[in-house]
Amino acid sequence: MRLIALAWRYLWARPLVAVLNLALLALGVAAMSFVVVVSEQVERSVQRDLAGVDLVVGAKGSPLQLILAGVFHLDVPTGNVPLATVGLLREHPLVERVVPVSLGDSLRGYRIVGSTLQYPALYGAQLAEGAYWQDKLQAVLGADVAHATGLAIGARFVGSHGLGSSGEAHGDTPYAVVGRLARCGCVLDRLVLTDLASVWAVHGHAAPDHDAAQGDHDDGDGREVTLLLVGYRSPLAAATLPRWVNAQPGLQAAAPALESARLLRMLGAGTEVLRGFGLVLLLAAGASVFVGLVHAVREREPDLAMLRMLGAPPWRVAALVLTEALLLALVGALVGLALGQGLIAALGWELARQRSLQVSAIWGSWQQAVLVGGTVGLALLAAALPAWRALRLDVSRLMQAPR
Amino acid sequence: MLALRGLEFAWAPGSVLRFADFEVAQGGTALLAGASGSGKSTLLALIAGLLTPAAGRIAVAGTDIASLPRGARDAWRGATLGFVPQRLHLSASLSVAENLALPYFACGAAVDHVRVAVLLERLDLVGLAARRPHELSVGQAQRAALARALLRRPRVLLVDEPTANLDDATSATVIKLLAEATSESGATLVIATHDARIRAGLPTAQVLALEAAT
Predict the structure, then answer these.
(1) Is A257 exposed, middle or buried (CB count within 10 Å of its CB: 0-12, 13-18, 19+)?
(2) At what angle do helices A256-299 and A15-49 cross, to 10 degrees?
């Protein structure tokens, strides 16, 4: 009989204790794994979606709301700003790039974003099929949108007013699908992209001259955009440009780096609570494994003494106890990882349903390896004293003592 | 096969057990007789190399056990001795068949399934291999413990109080079983007992009468 097989049998000799210890270990690992993977993915997703955007300019309101609406497309915008702002900013010597963005409508909960071709270029987007828009009311679908709606090139759809699927439909201004983006793992996956002029056309404004949207001065006919994504020409702009923008009437500047750091800090509090909870569960599991093994070794002393009598060296008897703890830790860690991945997959499904951030279960990350290693280390630490007792068994006393 | 010369053991300073010189030939039977506390189990532990004598020598097949390094004693014990303790010590977590695999686990060897099957057959345990110890009768448990002790073909079989708390009929069965098993295997049988029924059942056995500690 092999060491592992015998340890496995001894592990399940006390099924209630084994299940309790496994449950504690698995829950601790699941909580830790969930927190580690989700927080890493959210942080990476935030950083990816911020690519190339140094400043977001929009209507007065909450800067965080401006970022959430304009960069992550998770909130409603604070309002609109005049189209003339595009030109105003482009003339500023510290500004390298201004990408206007107009929001307001959606397709089955996926946002329709009116912008210029600079917008997909910010994320290095690639077309999987078709082409970008050449005219108003032509749309390019993000990968998730195309998958969820099943709309193919040439298909037509109408947008609904607002961000919910129950908004008023703009039935008289249907869009034609002209392209589909390859998956980028960024915010574009869940957007419908179109020309700025499409948004004005849908909402009853005549399209301006093409140059106006591209940045030349608007003629002031009342056309608006929702917000502007600004790229700095120089790092010095970070010190002065937001102040300059905020001094303009009706304009608000929000720095994505600052706001996203604030957002992650807010999320971080919850993350720390979950992480602490997982750690407490793991430590409780370690204590439970320790108590369980101490009792098991005490109960099993005659069995272990018999093994010594049969010729087993002390280290083999101690190894039996350590192997039992090792098996417990490995099974607990694997069950915990599977549970954690299941929770992450469920969260990812729910977030996808809400057209929100992308979170997906992953296997084989170094954090998971560290978690398994930590769990095994904890279990071996808990087994150290029981194994030491097994190593130091007084065999002759145990062989003589009546039970 | 088994020889004791000038053997002494001290549990504590001033409490010394002295054992008479004694010798048993290969295949012979020895009874370690005496009242409780006379040192029967201690002598078994000394022969098994679990305790180290304060003086004197124990030789099994020419090997002075006390001269073996501690690590080597384990391997020597597993290869040379079979042991049936008074309480049998069958693992309650394992089936009879798994209990019979323990001697192989103890020495890190692969289980010899043929040998296990032979002993299960010989000791009439075939139908009981999957049972747990608590599902066995006293006699069946005795046979299982004896099978475990005989698995690795020991040269000396040590048995501690095999008939304690057994009725006469079961006691007679156990004595017969021990005699037959050692007779077939050619092992030297050493029984620690204070039960007169064993002395009566094994009339040709040599007897080492032990006295309380001096």
Answers:
(1) middle
(2) 170
Distance from CA of A13 to the nearest CA of B (A): 5
**Which residues in chain A are closer than 8 Å to B50, comparing Cβ atoms?**
308-309, 395-396, 399
Q: What value does the CA radius of gyration of chain A take, rounded to a whole number of Å?
A: 30
Please give the structure tokens belonging to residue B79: 């290869």
- The shortest C-alpha distance from A46 to chain B (Å) reads 54
The percentage of chain B sitting over the pLDDT mark of 90, rounded to a whole number, equals 48
Distance, CA of A28 to CA of A257 (rounded, Å): 33
Judge whether residue A214 has pLDDT over 50.
no
- In the 8-state DSSP scheme, what is residue A151? P
Q: Can you spell out the DSSP letters for A178-204? A: EEEEPP-SSGGGGEEEEEHHHHHHHTT
Q: A13 CB near a chain B CB, below 8 Å?
A: yes
Nearest chain A residue to B145 by CA: give it: A306
Query: In this predicted model, which residue has the larger pLDDT, A282 or A346?
Result: A346
- The helix or strand, by DSSP H or E, that contains position A107, with its residue range, turns out to be strand A95-107
Quick: pLDDT tens for A44-62.
888 888 877 899 999 998 8
Q: Please, are residues A269 and A22 in contact by the beta-carbon 8 Å criterion?
A: no
The DSSP 8-state label assigned to residue A168 in this structure reads P
Dist CA B36 CA B210 (whole Å): 10
DSSP H or E run through A292: helix A256-299
Q: Give the integer Cα–Cα distance in Å for B39 and B193.
A: 11
Instruction: Report the distance separating Cα B38 and Cα B185, nearest Å.
Output: 30
Chain B stretch 70-89, residues whose beta carbon is closer than 8 A to a beta carbon of chain A? 71, 74-79, 83, 85-87, 89
- Specify the pLDDT at position A211: 40
Q: How many helices (H) and strands (E) does chain B have?
A: 7, 10
- A308 close to B (CB below 8 A): yes
Query: In this structure, are residues B162 and B130 in contact, taking their beta carbons and an 8 Å threshold?
Result: no
pLDDT given for residue B56 in this prediction: 93
Q: What's the angle, vertex CA A245, arms to CA A242 and CA A248, rounded to 5? A: 155
What distance in Å separates residue B192's CA from the closest CA in chain A? 11
CB atoms B106 and A10 under 8 Å: no
pLDDT digits (tens, 9 = 90+) for A285-321: 888 888 888 888 888 888 899 999 999 999 999 999 9
Mean pLDDT over A253-273 rounds to: 81
pLDDT above 70 coverage of chain A, percent = 93
Query: Are the beta carbons of B101 and A1 separated by less than 8 Å?
Result: yes
CA distance B45 to chain A (A): 6
CA dihedral in degrees (A263, A268, A273, A274; nearest 10)?
100
Token pair belonging to A99: 């990408």
Element at B150 (helix H, strand E): helix B138-150
pLDDT tens for A81-120 read 999 999 999 999 999 999 999 998 899 889 999 999 999 9
Dihedral of the CA atoms A144, A149, A150, A153 (nearest 10)? -90
| pLDDT for A331 | 94
Statement: the pTM of the whole predicted model exceeds 0.80? no
Q: Does B112 touch chain A (CB under 8 A)?
A: no
Give me the mean pLDDT over the A149-168 stretch. 82
